[in-house]
């Protein structure tokens, strides 16, 4: 037995009709068309309308109703189809009744845009009123406040500005001083082992300059940068030697033959290395350099556990 609803549906789709299109053409309500395609004939008003609607559906999609009339009668439990004249008459009567029924929902839909417009306009007017009212009260309050401020002494206002300006300048000066102190070049003693003294140099420039000056008697000295000897020689009393180290040097080693008679400056700042031990004449000084861009330098492998002493750089 064939599926009548599926045959009709496939024919509709082949014609390119949607259910809404078919409803407009046949004037059969969409819910009845869906019931026909699903063969839910109980959802239709009666067997007569089942046959009438299916006949009209079939003719609209270019199918011959007679091809499956017998099968439809069998499904409906009827042996003979109703006369065409009676079917046509009842169908026309049914459609006339449907057309005469007022579409209450559609009638209401026509008024929705108008209602929305009225509500929006009312809301806009209400908002404008509230804002205008608020601005009026605000302006009135401002006028009263301005009237009171006129009575305030101009000298008092000027004095407050001066005090505020003085506080801001003092705060800025303190901040600048703290910043400058943080950026100040410093040398920190990290270990002492016999005649070997190890230091950390922080906030140093990328290129460091050493100056050695000998007093009293001649002294032999040597300067090494990252394991490469830059200079070595004997300085006569009163002689001065300036040594410019390679850029980004990480480790400086100084060998002093007469440390008691030797003065050292690093980047123009006096290096008071005798504070760690003023009695040793021959000594080796190792300086681990941390530039201004790098706050921490690698700790030397030869560093031993001893108390750390900080030696701040002072200007000459």
From TrEMBL:
GO terms for molecular function: DNA binding. Residues 142-185, 292-316 are annotated as: Disordered. It holds the Pfam family HTH_25. The keyword Transmembrane applies. Residues 302-316 have a biased composition (Low complexity). Residues 218-284 form the Cytoskeleton protein RodZ-like C-terminal domain. It comes from the Bacteria. The chain crosses the membrane at residues 111-132. Residues 175-185, 292-301 have a biased composition (Basic and acidic residues). This is Transcription regulation protein. It comes from Ligilactobacillus ceti DSM 22408.
């Amino acid at each position: 037995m064939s599926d009548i609803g599926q045959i009709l549906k496939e024919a509709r789709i082949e014609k390119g009709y949607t259910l809404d299109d078919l409803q407009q053409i046949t004037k059969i309500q969409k819910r009845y068309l869906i019931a026909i395609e699903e063969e839910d004939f109980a959802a239709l008003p009666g067997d007569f309308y089942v046959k009438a609607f299916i006949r009209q559906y079939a003719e609209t999609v270019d199918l011959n109703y007679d091809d499956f009339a017998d099968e439809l009668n069998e499904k409906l439990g009827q042996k003979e189809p109703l006369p065409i004249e009676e079917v046509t008459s009842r169908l026309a009567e049914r459609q006339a009744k449907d057309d005469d029924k007022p579409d209450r929902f559609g009638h209401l839909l026509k008024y929705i845009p108008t209602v929305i417009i009225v509500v929006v306009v009312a809301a806009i007017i209400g908002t404008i009123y509230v804002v205008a009212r608020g601005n009026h009260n605000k302006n009135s309050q401002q006028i009263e406040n301005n009237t009171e401020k006129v009575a305030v002494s101009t000298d008092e206002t000027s004095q407050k500005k001066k005090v505020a300006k003085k506080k801001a300048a003092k705060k800025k000066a303190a901040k600048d001083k703290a910043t400058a102190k943080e950026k100040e070049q410093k040398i920190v003693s990290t270990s002492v082992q016999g005649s070997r003294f190890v230091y950390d140099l922080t906030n140093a420039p990328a290129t460091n300059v050493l100056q050695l000056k000998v007093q009293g008697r001649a002294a032999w000295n040597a300067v090494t940068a990252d394991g490469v000897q830059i200079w070595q020689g004997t300085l006569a009393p009163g002689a001065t030697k300036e040594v410019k180290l390679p850029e980004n040097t990480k480790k400086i080693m100084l060998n002093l033959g007469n440390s008691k008679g030797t003065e050292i400056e690093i980047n123009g700042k006096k290096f008071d290395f005798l504070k760690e031990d003023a009695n040793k004449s021959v000594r080796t000084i190792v300086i681990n350099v941390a530039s201004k861009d790098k706050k921490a330098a690698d700790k030397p492998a030869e560093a031993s556990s001893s108390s750390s002493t900080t030696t701040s750089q002072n200007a000459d």
